[in-house]
Amino acid sequence: MLSSRTEVIVRSAKLADSARLSLVFHEAWQNAYAGIIPHASLQNILQRRDTNWWRSQVRQGEPIVVLEVSGKVGGYATSGLARSRGAYQGEIYELYLIPSFQGLGLGEYLFEACRYRLDSRRLKGMIVWALAENRRAIEFYERRGGRPIARVNERFGRDKLEKIALGWK
Q1: What is the DSSP letter of 158?
Q2: Kind and range of the H or E element at 79?
Q3: How remote is the C-alpha of 82 from its chain's centroid?
Q4: Which strand (E) or helix (H) includes residue 48?
Q5: Does the pLDDT value for residue 4 go beyond 90?
Q6: Is 1 within a domain?
Q7: Which residue of 23, 75, 144, 157 has the lowest C-beta tally within 10 Å?
Q8: What is the pLDDT of residues 56-82, one digit of tens each?
């Protein structure tokens, strides 16, 4: 639970955040996707995103914003140019919080940081993709005004999972 004295900071990731980013990624993905993404595929994804992977991303200057609550990194987000061409020029690629920080309104900080970064680049429209079975994510984005605009299937091992794009003009 957050108190009135809880300090919440959103900032750019630092090299020193790499181990914590790996932990956040692992906890958030296990929580969000266990039972949705086939186990072997999920484990493969988790293994690739270790501390060294995060260290490399920060060193390369990838635009990662972190959510720090009372000195503890508990979430991150990435955003940039939309990966698909069209009416939506900006994209939130990832936005994740550790499970104990979910449902407290903290995701809004990361969402707004991404929106600000995309707006400052004068990108028109914003898109985010979420697995259709990840209702918590879809509802999070819908509460912020995102509307379903497209559906595709993505392969995870032998399984095809539906993804939904939500957009903001």
Answers
A1: T
A2: strand 72-81
A3: 14
A4: helix 39-48
A5: no
A6: no
A7: 157
A8: 999 999 999 999 999 999 999 999 999
Residue 85: both structure tokens together: 């061409």
Q: What are phi and psi of 145, to 5 degrees?
A: 100, 0
Instruction: Note the pTM of the prediction, 2 decimals.
Output: 0.95
Question: Tokens at residue 136, please?
Answer: 């918590």
Spatial contact of 146 and 128, defined as CB atoms under 8 Å apart: yes
Question: How far apart, in whole angstroms, are the C-alpha atoms of residue 109 and residue 140?
Answer: 12
User: How many independent structural domains does the chain possess?
Assistant: 1
- 3 belongs to a structural domain: no
Q: Cβ distance 136 to 125 under 8 Å? A: no
Answer for the pair 31, 75: CB distance below 8 angstroms, yes or no.
no
Q: Which of 58, 61, 50 minimizes the C-alpha distance to 25?
A: 50
> How high is the pLDDT of residue 85?
85
For residue 134, the domain's CATH number is: 3.40.630.30
Exposure of 60 in the CB half-sphere (CA atoms within 13 A): 9
- Alpha-carbon distance of 128 to 74, in angstroms, equals 21
Reading the block at residue 50, the tokens are 């270790």
Q: Which residues constitute the domain of residue 28?
A: 8-168
